[in-house]
Amino acid sequence: MRSIVVVAVTFWVSLASALPAFAQFGSRTQNSRFKESVFRNLDRVFKPKLVVSRGASGPVNAMGVSADEHYLVTAVGDKTIRIWDLWLGREIARLSGGAAAVSHVAMVPGQNRFLTIGGDSSLVVWDVANLANPLKLGAALVPASDVVFLNDGATVAVGGVDGSVTLWSIPERRILANWTAHGVGNVRLAISSAGGQLTSAGADGAVRTWDAVGGKLIAEKQFETAVTALAVHESGSVAVGGADGSVTVLDRNQANPRRVEMHEGAVTALSFAPSGEHLISGGQDGGIFMLRDGKATRMGKHDKAVTGVQSGQGEAFSLSVSADGTTRLWNLKTGAEMLLMISTTQGWAVVDAKGRYDGNEAALSGIDWQAEDAVANIEDFAETHYQAALLPRTLKGEGDLAEARTIVDGVAYPPTVSLVPNVTAPVDGKVTVEVTAEDNSGGGVSEIRLYRNGKLVSAGKAQSRDGGQQRRVERYELDVGNGKTVITATALNKERLESRPQTVTVSGGSPDKPGRIHLLTVGVNAYQDKSLNLFYAKPDAVAIDGFFDQSRQVVAPMARRLALLDEQATQHGIVQAIRSLRDVPHEDLIVIYLAGHGVSVEDRWFFISHDANLSDTPPQGLLSSDEMKAEIEALNADRVLLLIDTCHSGTLVDPIKDYRGMKSLRLLARTVGTHVIAATDRTQSAIELQRLGHGIFTYALLAGLAGKADHLLDGAVSATELVRYVEESVPALAREYADDEQYPTGFSRGMDFAISNSSKN
User: Where in the sequence is the signal peptide annotated (predicted)?
Assistant: First the structure.
């Protein structure tokens, strides 16, 4: 599939800045051989660019931002409309734009509604709170070139490629007026909130002001070049972008023009700041400029033509969209690029200038850092560069983002890894594996990770270790049974950059014996601290236990069911229950379900046990994600599914910070090689509803297990299918039953596996 380069700028690490890292080494070793090695290592610094290698969704054709800056709507080249929740920091909806890509987006003033114009000229009004029932107005008379709402929000003006302007009534779903405003060519439109006058500009070089009700001409001014972009400030000032790359600003009387040469090629988008103190422009050349006091400052550049710009209400940032497939966030105080926002066919991602990132797993799997001689997936930087809720934290100017090296400036390559089994077929169900990690770029070797069928083999099971920071060898004896076993190894350098995995497959002479299911359910309604009591955590745990106990849809026999409810669900009791599963055979499946309170403190997530005492310093009775990671890593089973249905207590931290623990859960899944579905994300409390008899997360989970998650329609529900179903269905259920928001988050790494059958037959 064609790759889309989204960050094309790379920087070389200077020799002067790199040499100190080798100073101590050089003082001990003076011979030329080692000097040559040092300079060879310097030449091999990884200097990549960011590329969407899979799932590129095409250009971003248009955008709109709600007045409260809660929602961003983008029209994408794959014929979809994407809705971003800027407060939450993620894409929350993907809508079909019709048979052809949507060309224009306009927000209804003061509302969370927006209008789109499709490539088939269809006009559709959408409500963020009710996306399932859009209002279809009809088709534009000619292909549209621009669209703006009049100040009443009930009337929309559409410019046509034939030079016309058409007014539509939204409530009446009909055309109110149509007139020829310009000669043949694209018409650009802008509305002034002062007086409700409509301004148009055309390929004929004319800028005209109209009575927005009757279409009566009020004023006009002629330019020597075709007008390709237009903006009007509420004060009446007008900005005109020309096909020659110039921008001219006029006062409210369309007088006193100030002309500035800005772009190479046509100006494609203009936006005044609310104060009118500065103007943002985008061009066919991809450039983004800020014009202040008659002086133009170039802030940065897209890789292709800019299709839209908009300044934020607080004038701290602006947004731009481009044919290069990206949305970019710019800091108006410093002029620097803050964030890159990417929609792919599989989801969304956000990346900042240092390479810190957030996104859904399906999208991130197709985004790589590429250099001429190496490729690293963006998730290979998870330990140092993943930042939950990166977008809202950046918008709010929070200073709590983890420090990280700027990837495009150059980082050390990860180690090279080799993986050698002693035999190609197991002997007595066992095989010995030797993993070698070598440093060829000065990044060192800090850790080797070995996975059996996608699940991490505990480092404590290594039979031997040799070597040091430059070369390390570890040997393992693995129980692999008689069937097919996939063995994978990776290694991390000192900067925690993970290598590309190396994989071998060991096959026995006969299939493995069927696995069994081991279930641990934890549900806490009644806490020692009664102020924490819940209604549905215990019934939800009982329902999950009941599905695996009574349903004929489970894919394997039940080996054991452990249930810890209320006073049984102490921190010690939960840890001991997980430890009791350590010796489960590798071919078996372990499902762990937790329901109760959860909370994030900085980047760590905690499950609040029955015996929690939050008044202690530090609080007691909290099971941390670090403890959970260690316990799950120690499990012998290759297939582990962790289901977390929790809401924050509102006691330990400000709930607005509750998103941060998502990082520890993500790293748990990624490091250990398991599947995690967490009920809450950032500020959402898990929603409990009497109408459903369950929390919304568990309601969706049970429906998915019963068959609704069978996306492939192959008769089975797998772990990755369940993750996808819960992520997609919970937000819709929250809106339908609670008029609220809840966005669960799934993390998957490792072997996919069936959990239930989608039919009882």
Answer: 1-23
Instruction: State the total domains in the chain.
Output: 3
Do 292 and 432 fall into the same domain? no
Average pLDDT for consecutive 10-residue bins of the chain (761 residues)? Answer: 38 26 33 37 73 95 94 96 92 89 94 93 93 92 95 91 95 94 96 78 95 83 95 91 95 80 96 91 97 91 96 88 96 91 95 94 93 90 91 81 90 92 76 92 92 92 88 92 87 92 82 82 95 90 94 91 96 97 93 90 85 86 92 94 76 44 82 85 59 85 94 92 91 81 83 85 44
State the Cα–Cα distance between residues 617 and 220, nearest whole angstrom: 71
Residues 399 and 433 in one domain: no
Residue 378 neighbours by CB under 8 Å, 6+ apart: 50, 349, 351, 355, 357, 359, 364, 367, 368, 369, 385
Which range of residues forms the domain containing residue 738?
Answer: 517-757
Do residues 573 and 564 make contact, with C-beta atoms less than 8 angstroms apart?
yes
For residue 441, what is the domain's CATH number?
Answer: 2.60.40.10
Give strand pairing partners of 184.
none
Mark out the alpha helices in 445-516 (DSSP H runs): none
Q: Identify whether 7 is part of a domain.
A: no
- At 161, list the tokens: 């490629």
Closest CA to 290 of 239, 256, 243: 239
Nearest Cα neighbor of 442 from 32, 26, 10 is: 26
Please tell me the pTM assigned to this model: 0.84
* Main-chain phi, psi angles of 589, to 5 degrees: -115, 130
Distant-in-sequence, close-in-space partners of 367: CB < 8 Å, separation ≥ 6: 50, 51, 52, 53, 342, 344, 349, 351, 359, 377, 378
Is 589 in contact with 515 (CB distance < 8 Å)? yes
Is there a domain that residue 156 lies in?
A: no
Give bridge partners of residue 607 from the DSSP assignment. Answer: 598, 623
Does residue 418 sit in the same domain as residue 530?
no
Q: 390 and 432 share a domain?
A: no
